[in-house]
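About this split. The held-out portion is used to measure sequence recovery: a designer receives only the structure tokens and must propose an amino acid at every position. Recovery is the fraction of positions where the proposal matches the reference. Here is one held-out target exactly as it appears in the evaluation file.
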């Protein structure tokens, strides 16, 4: 049974533990933001309704974590159409760089275009559907960002599991893992993330997903040696790295 964290004080207490997955109410993060005197305003579009996007609660959690950690660099694994990329760009200061990674067309050209119904039938078909849609549609949500925002953004077209993160990115304070959802890919992305985040937050999407069970299974294993928080009523889980609250 996961312990329910309902307050900022309980969140701080849980950080002292050595392992486990803790269910965290959004209220606890909001209370923490109040205590840290974090500005409540943020910029966002209405959440997309298409497959592969994030919910309103997911959106709020990502913004809150970015405001709490105040990263100088955010790395997103899984650009898709760029909604969360834009969310990060619009809610971080001018000295925060955003890097977003997705597959090059050469690795997705062989995939057949399918419909949404097929995409909901299995984890593998869901990922392949999203990969193909990304190839076809591109980063649609990034077309209207400002020139100043574009200068802070780097789009990387590579397989994230083959990148040497230390050589390519040196360091980061926030990494959002939302690329391939197979167990081995989540593991590789997580290991790469922890290799360069010395202080900050690592975030996983699709925890408790009805389709992508590998994320949940991997974090159950991973949490045997690391405290992981899952935000109730969201698909977001995260781990804080050397953060004092």
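Reference sequence for scoring:
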């Amino acid at each position: 049974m996961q312990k329910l964290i309902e307050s900022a004080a309980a969140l701080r207490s849980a950080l002292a533990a050595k392992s486990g997955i803790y269910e965290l109410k959004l209220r606890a993060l909001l209370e923490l933001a109040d205590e840290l005197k974090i500005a409540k305003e943020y910029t966002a579009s209405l959440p997309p309704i298409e497959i592969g996007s994030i919910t309103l609660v997911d959106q709020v959690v990502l913004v809150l974590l970015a405001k709490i950690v105040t990263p100088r660099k955010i790395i997103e694994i899984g650009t898709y159409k760029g909604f969360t990329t834009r969310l990060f760009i619009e809610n971080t200061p001018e000295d925060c760089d955003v890097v977003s990674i997705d597959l090059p067309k050469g690795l997705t050209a062989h995939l057949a275009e399918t419909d949404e119904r097929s995409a909901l039938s299995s984890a593998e078909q869901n990922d392949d559907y999203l990969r193909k849609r990304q190839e076809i549609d591109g980063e649609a949500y990034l077309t209207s960002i400002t020139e100043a925002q574009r200068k802070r953004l780097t789009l990387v077209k590579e397989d994230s599991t083959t990148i040497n993160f230390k050589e390519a990115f040196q360091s980061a304070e926030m990494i959002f893992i939302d690329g391939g959802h197979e167990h081995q890919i989540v593991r590789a992305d997580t290991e790469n993330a922890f290799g360069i985040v010395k202080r900050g937050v690592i975030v996983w999407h699709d925890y408790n997903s009805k389709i992508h069970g590998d994320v949940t299974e991997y974090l159950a294993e991973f949490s045997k040696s690391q405290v992981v928080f899952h935000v109730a009523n969201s698909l977001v889980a995260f781990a804080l790295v050397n953060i004092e609250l």
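Annotator remark: The mean pLDDT is 94.
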